[in-house]
């Protein structure tokens, strides 16, 4: 087992003092660089109350790229895929948690896609093969995604014990979950995930008259 993973597991074994409603975390690569687009998920050990209103999420197409690159949603969330380009796109996923296809279109599709099963969903465009995006569907309502600085804040977390899970689409291996207790004086977590930041895939100019 690699040293960064050992450090992560040791950290997750430490209790966080009871009472806090907000958890801050910094996720870095083993080289110490901030890791963007990492999901930090708190899974309650006791059943969490069902969400009454889950907002829509948005994954747009702009400049022949999906934005955002990574989206984290709770099960049952509906996601819109508006095409803001002047060319048409053909959005699809073959991932087991959610298989779908939105054939060549421009503008906003008539219906959003409901992500109703937990898991990792890889999204692509059947016309522009460099386009890719990821959706992580989780059962818990307590999650966040790191920004370019590697930081994430998860607010409104009830006090209690949680299973903490890290995920990134470019991670080298799945990281075992650890347990923490969230409470009133929760310190910021410093986490290490063996993954690399995304590098945009090279592609040619889109032919505006073709699609």
Which stretches of 5+ consecutive residues score pLDDT under 50?
Answer: 1-18
Overall domain count = 2
Q: Cα-atom Rg, whole angstroms?
A: 18 Å
- Biggest sheet strand order reads 6-12-11-8-9
Overall residue-averaged pLDDT value: 86
What is the name of the CATH class of the largest domain? Mainly Beta
Count every helix, treating DSSP H or I runs of 4 or more residues as helices: 1
Per DSSP, what share of the residues sits in E-state strands of 2 or more residues? 35-45%
Which structural category fits the helices and strands?
mainly beta
State the major sheet. 5 strands, mixed
Order of helices and strands: HEEEEEEEEEEEEEEEEE
Shape: globular
CATH third-tier fold name of the largest domain: Immunoglobulin-like
Distance between the termini: 48 Å
Total E-strand runs: 17
Q: What percent of the residues sit in helical stretches (DSSP H or I)?
A: under 10%
CATH superfamily of the largest domain: Immunoglobulins
CATH architecture of the largest domain: Sandwich
Sequence-ordered SSE layout with sheet pairings:
Layout: H1 3-12, E1 23-28, E2 39-44, E3 57-58, E4 60-61, E5 66-67, E6 70-74, E7 77-80, E8 89-93, E9 100-105, E10 113-115, E11 119-125, E12 132-138, E13 142-145, E14 151-154, E15 160-167, E16 178-182, E17 189-192
Parallel strand pairs: 1-17, 3-7, 6-12
Antiparallel strand pairs: 1-14, 2-13, 2-15, 4-5, 7-10, 8-9, 8-11, 11-12, 15-16
């Amino acid at each position: 087992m690699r040293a960064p993973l050992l450090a992560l597991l040791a950290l997750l074994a430490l209790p966080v003092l009871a009472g806090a409603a907000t958890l801050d975390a910094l996720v870095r690569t083993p080289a110490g660089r901030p890791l963007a687009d990492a999901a930090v998920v708190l899974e309650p050990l006791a059943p969490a109350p069902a969400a009454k209103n889950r907002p829509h999420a948005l994954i747009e197409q702009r400049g022949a790229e999906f934005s955002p690159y990574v989206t984290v949603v709770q099960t049952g969330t509906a996601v819109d895929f508006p095409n803001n380009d002047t060319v048409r796109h053909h959005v699809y996923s073959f991932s087991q948690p959610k298989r779908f296809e939105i054939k060549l279109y421009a503008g906003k599709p008539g219906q959003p896609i409901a992500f109703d099963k937990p898991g990792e969903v890889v999204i692509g465009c059947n016309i522009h093969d460099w386009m890719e995006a990821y959706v992580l569907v989780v059962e818990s309502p307590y999650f966040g995604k790191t920004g370019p600085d590697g930081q994430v804040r998860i607010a409104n977390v009830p006090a209690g014990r949680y299973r903490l899970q890290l995920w990134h689409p470019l991670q080298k291996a799945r990281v075992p979950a650890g347990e923490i207790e969230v409470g009133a004086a929760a310190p910021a977590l410093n986490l290490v995930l063996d993954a690399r930041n995304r590098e945009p895939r090279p592609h040619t100019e889109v032919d505006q008259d073709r699609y």
